[in-house]
């Protein structure tokens, strides 16, 4: 086994001089050999599109997510677009999106012809909450809401938002690109959702060797429609029942992700350990760490902390000098992005997303992170902020 922070809690004694923000090359001892065998088999069989690898991966994804259906697609952005289109969201429809999220959430709404409205986040939870969603529904009368589970966490009021949308006749799509393996009240976040999406971008907790995504649901008819749209709207080779597009996931990606699922539990445990270790062991008055809500478990995707803007600049400079990678997820709200002009239909802002963007910082957190790397980060954060 690779020695990781999750498997060894004592200092390794190995002197290090840098820590990357993220590393996707901490493979398990048997991983590369197993992967090369799969590449050899797939290449010799020239089975690159469709077939049993796709079916196997979709079955395993559904099992892990505790859903009836999983359908893979080309990327996480397409997954959101497939969900929107399958629900009948299109030209002119209003869709609520969080003001703090990755651009793809906003972009997907525009790409199906709908009009996004950005909604502020809860300053404690850093996600949408039921009060904000209710306020935005009253003001903008949307057809759909996209709730995003960020940082490997789950929105604290997920259940309340699900119930609210159901009562108000609004479709709820859950963008879970960052939250594979996270739970709420002991259940997978995918289990009770109308429809969820995820991304297999290489840096994700369940990451591929390239782009990839999936939609997950318990509604078989909805899953079938998304599958149809992702494959040119066809049921037979030349029989097309809808105008879709090409969003197939290739066999090599499916085989890689299938292999990653064999190791997903230990990878998540390693990430969880790192995120929690920071919260418990870095002691500096100027930095405040955040974690998942009490009724949820995280997957350790991103470590979240807050520092006042003037001190954040100092910390970032110091981390750079110490050769420690860091992130700012995210540096600006959706509603301030230059690309919104001509697309955004409105916004609901109380200033929370902007304040979060000014103060958030993300320390290194990845599967296979070693104990001495964690302690190296701790040492320099405390030194810089003393």
Radius of gyration: 21 Å
CATH homologous superfamily heading of the largest domain: Type I PLP-dependent aspartate aminotransferase-like (Major domain)
Q: Helical percent range? A: 25-40%
Strand proportion: 15-25%
Give the integer mean of the pLDDT values: 95
CATH architecture of the largest domain: 3-Layer(aba) Sandwich
Q: Using the alpha-carbon principal axes, give the shape.
A: globular
Show unreliable segments.
6-12
What's the number of helices? 12
Strand order of the largest sheet: 1-9-8-5-4-2-3-15
CATH class of the largest domain: Alpha Beta
Helix and strand sequence: HHEHEHEHEHEEEEEHEEHHEEEHEHEH
DSSP strand tally: 16
Structural domain tally: 2
Label the structural class.
alpha/beta
* Biggest sheet character: 8 strands, mixed
Task: Describe the structure concisely.
The chain is α/β, with parallel strands linked by helices. Helix content is about 40%, strand content about 15%. The protein is globular, with a radius of gyration of 21 Å.
């Amino acid at each position: 086994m690779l020695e990781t922070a999750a498997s060894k809690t004592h200092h390794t004694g190995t002197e290090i001089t840098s820590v990357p923000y993220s590393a996707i090359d901490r493979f398990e001892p048997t991983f590369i050999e197993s992967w090369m065998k799969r590449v050899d088999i797939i290449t010799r069989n020239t089975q690159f599109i469709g077939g049993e690898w796709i079916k196997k991966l979709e079955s395993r994804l559904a099992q892990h997510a505790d859903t009836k259906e999983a359908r893979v697609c080309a990327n996480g952005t397409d997954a959101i677009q497939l969900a929107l289109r399958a629900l009948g969201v299109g030209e002119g429809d209003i869709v609520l999106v969080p003001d703090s999220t990755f651009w793809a959430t906003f972009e997907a709404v525009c790409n199906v012809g709908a009009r996004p409205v950005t909604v502020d986040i809860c300053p404690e939870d850093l996600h949408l909450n039921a009060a904000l969603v209710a306020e935005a529904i009253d003001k903008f009368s949307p057809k759909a809401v996209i709730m995003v589970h960020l940082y490997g966490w789950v929105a604290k009021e997920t259940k309340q938002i699900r119930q609210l949308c159901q009562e108000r006749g609004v479709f709820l799509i859950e963008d879970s690109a960052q939250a594979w393996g996270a739970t709420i009240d002991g259940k997978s976040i995918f289990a009770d959702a109308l429809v969820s999406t995820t991304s297999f971008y290489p840096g994700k907790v369940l990451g591929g060797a390239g782009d990839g995504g999936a939609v997950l649901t318990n509604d078989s008819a909805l899953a079938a429609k998304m599958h149809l749209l992702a494959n040119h709207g066809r049921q037979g080779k030349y029989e097309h029942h809808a105008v879709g597009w090409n969003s197939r996931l290739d066999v090599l990606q499916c085989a890689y992700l299938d292999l990653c699922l064999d190791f997903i539990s230990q990878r998540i445990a390693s990430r969880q350990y790192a995120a929690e270790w920071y919260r418990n062991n870095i002691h500096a008055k100027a930095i405040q760490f955040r974690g998942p809500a009490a009724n949820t478990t995280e997957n350790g995707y991103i470590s979240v902390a807050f520092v006042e803007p003037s001190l954040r600049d100092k910390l970032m400079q110091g981390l750079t000098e110490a050769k420690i990678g860091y992130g700012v997820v995210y540096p600006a709200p959706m509603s301030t992005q230059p690309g919104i002009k001509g697309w955004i239909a409105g916004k609901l802002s109380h200033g929370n997303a902007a304040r979060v963007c000014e103060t958030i910082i993300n320390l290194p957190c990845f599967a296979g992170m070693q104990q001495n790397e964690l302690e190296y980060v701790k040492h320099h954060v405390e030194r810089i902020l003393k």
